[in-house]
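Hey, can you fold this?
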Amino acid sequence: MKHHFFKIVFFILCALTLISCTENQQASASGTTSRQEASGTASASTVDTAQVSDVSANPFGENGYYYYCAKYNSVYHVQLKDNKVQYTGYSIRNNIATFGSLWSDEFDSFYYEIKNNKVVSIIYQDTKMVVTDIKSDSEILRFLKDAATEKIRKICGNYRDEKHKQNILLSESDGKFLLHIEKDDGSIIEDVFATLEDNGARGNLYYLAFNYSEISLINLKEEEQQEMYYESEFSFPLPYEKVSYFFTPSKITSSSTLVEKNKDSNFYSAENLADNTWKSWCEGTDGDGIGEKLTFDFEKPINLDSVCFRNGYGDLRFYFTNNRVKTISLYINGNYRKDYTLKDMWNWQEIRIDAKEVSQVELVIKDVYPGTKYKDTCISEIYFYRETVNDYDVPVFTFDDMTTECLEKFPYPIYKYRRGLPDSLFYTNDGIPLLLYLSNPTSNWDIYIFYDLDFYVYNPSSKTWKKDNDNPIFAEIKTKSDIAKQEKKPQMLQISDNSDSWFYLSESGEFVFDGFKFTEYVEEPVVYANER
């Protein structure tokens, strides 16, 4: 279903998008989302879940314990209340320890580490909360400030910033953190971080921002000038105890595997489905691979939330030339679950499973999106995870050399939104990268709002991009875009959740890309049973 309702609420979205973005980022930064809320913003209401059933004695003590999450620099008061595990989250806001969230969770032994009938750590998203010596709410602010100071103290030292051709020294003196930057041209910049703020430390020229597993060095002047395209000047690594969202199968097998001349027999192996790279599994039958099966075995039973896919061949030059999976049958522990339809897109997509005690998952191909040149059906990656994850929690994926190269060669800043790739990057059937460049966007959230649109084509031989607004590939889009530009109407670029990327103009244009050109989308009329 295409999102026609955006045409009605477009101007409302223009006003609210930045507000929504800020609120969601604050919620994520403070670590206030529960497992049930992992894909949304923090909530101040109690989530009603199943009662604790497998805890013989109270492992949280009479009044509960306080736990610290280093990744989010937040404290959580956790206790049993009404026979459920209740969490109350706190973080620093305006120099006070502010209550940020309240939720309840069922007791799942996977998430809780108990020693001597005391919960000493709790898995939270992709990290852990660890028990502290805090005895009351009045001690939280002191603890968080000390913890924030310690986070900065851990990264003090000398660093080489090759990108900006400079050496960075961060040190501590008299309770203040000193920044000394010496550039290769001999110039020197110094700053002092004397003020600890909600999510970092502020100097006159720079800001040290806590950003999950790293601390970012923000150039305040450049951030203000570059707005959405700004990238931190440098990132100091800040390791934290990481707990994977993903279950790794102990064994992956396939009913067939493609073998090609002059390539290793394992080049298209099913093992490629769990390597976090563009390398892919390809079935090895003579036809489209209908009925071919993938089997994933787990060492011990797991509680499976979802299965995630990167559909099609992972080298994006050959995405359209090979088959992609359209319909797949899923079996849990040998029992048929249901058929699922996958989207014809290379970006990350998921299907919700919510199954308990899973020892084996089987996937059987039922239908495909046909390739333009080959009948080989391919899948790049399949993941199994325990709970809903956000974009920034997805494992780092290694894209093919062409994709990496063309993004590095683009002459202007581009915002990479969805799991490392710009939404406006496309590949032709011949394997040529295209980019729709929004030269002056006003938002960097789910919807891009802009006035100017240019079209670029990459030349792999010269390794250069060329602005090619008159290329017939873009003809239908350009006509509508030019009209909007002349009338000074804002436009939107949004990516469909259902098929290939599509482009939406505010005055009624929707376009899909099939590897050859962008064409205006015409929705097929719905035919009801009594009309047939």
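Oh, and this one too while you're at it.
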Amino acid sequence: MNLAHEKIIKLLLESNGPTTSRNLSQMIGISARSVKTHISQINEEAGATVINSGNQGYMINRNIAQSLLKKNETDIPQNFDERRNYIIREFLLKHISSLEIEELCNKICVSEATLRADIARMNRLYEGYKICFRFRKDDLLIEGPERSLRKMYSLNLLDNVESSYFDYDLLENEFPDFDIHYIVRVVRKTFQKHNYFINEFALFNLTLHIAVIIDRLKKKNYVQPLEDVKMTEEEKELICEICEQLEEEYNVVFTRGEQTEIYILFKSNANPPTTDEYEKLRELVGNEISDDALSLIEDIRNRYYVDLSNPTFTVPFALHLKNLIFRAKNGSSIYNPMSASIIQSQPIVFDIALFVAMKLMEEYDIEINEGEICFLALHIGGEIERQKHTSQRIKTVLLCPTYMDLSSQLYNKLLLLYSNEINIVSVVQQPSEIGSMSYDLLISTLRTESGKAVSVVISPFLSQNDKTNISDAIETARNRITAGMLKKHFDDCFEEELFFYKPSQVKSRDKAIRMLAENLMRIGYVRDNFYDNVMKREKAAATVFGYVAVPHSVEMDALKTSVSVLIDPSGIGWGEKTVNVVLMMSIQAHDHAEFTQLYEALIAVFSNEEYIHMICNCRTFKEYKSTLLSLID
């Protein structure tokens, strides 16, 4: 939003009736035609009708306009990384390929010379993605393959989503009349008692909603129970236990409507993701809201390049939409204590939520206030944060018939045991349901083919022997993933200019690190302080693993991710040890998520003495590449 947009919105908000383009042009000092252009841009950038045009002039949607202004009130970026994120967000949120230079400089409060210096650094930073920022007359342009642009936008979004959503102390401050941590303990213990797994994101979401429900009950606000919601006896027992403990502690009464609300939250946060999840979704929320939820998720993917199509998000999201629409149609809303925190710290996530809200307002002819928009942001940001935390876990499919609710029981047992290692993306009943699913590990109670993925057959009751076999399968799957990752990124990380065989006069740790660091600085892959940062890390704790050393900087601030290779069969003194291979890693900030996998993959290969002997025979980069790739096949 530029200054002209902001002035038009503020003037229309101050007006008590329709305002003509002529009046707006006189108040702002621009032509009537420019006013019309700016209003068209405001509506286009918002993705909805913020300003309506009528016979008597322009009218503004106050809820949307106020949210847009609040979203625009962001702090001025203070350093290169903040300016880089701001520029990328401008391209991302406005869906444009050029920015006006003078206007951009005014927004981030820097000179054009500083902007040009920043762009030069950004071009080095994103060179590996084949993305280029360039100046053309009065504009800054972004160019690159669509796939690379989408990856950059997605990484920028993930990097800027923080764990500020899961702030129990903030909830304590907002609900001072009752103990939030007591709710957490009740939910956690009751879930454990009934052998249900709940992750930290689902736990916070459930706690927040229960706190809102209790607050509403204390003010004598109730909800009507949804029809056709059936619970199993075990589920009913769990919900009743939670409600009874909360009733006693907070002196409230959970009606059937409130119990149903908590049950729906429980089902959406603790139920295994199955292939028929969308059919269940239609049963819970109806075809119209189900279709709208899926359509919004697709719109978010196309507009913001983030995939929220996982059933673990889709089901609670759609249920939330149903309740939100019901409240809006009845002129009620719920208080959101996280609003200020979300708007200030998560502008992109709030923008996505605002986009969803505007679509819903147009579709259902309702008004959605800021607090409700921030509840949407809570769902969206929570899913993005969950994806960040599960990206390093092994993508797993569970194959188990649903007889006597076995699949649900086994799903929860597995997550209680292995939630830090596996991410169960789907639960299927028949081998035919697996189809073209993407996964790395198949845990099955039936003997079946798993394609290239690792598979393990277990009993439905998870014996001690099953647990041992699962642990072995997880280790095998992890080794395959790291080897595959090394193979996939070999050409991105290794290159001939970074390969050295038995260089003269390099027989000590310090000389080896200095030679490799100076070479990286000469090429332009690292900054001037790279050598000092590597030595700082090395002196804190040596990076020697057998006959290989893997020195790297304490900061992930390289201009390009790379691995320099130094081979010396006669050995290099490394403190009290001797190494034959040195792998110096320089890591770019955007590749930090892959750093651990790359690091583990290299250690796995180079910790094998037989492999080290074979690699020490490689005198050229071509020989090194051929040997290393053959070892990880």
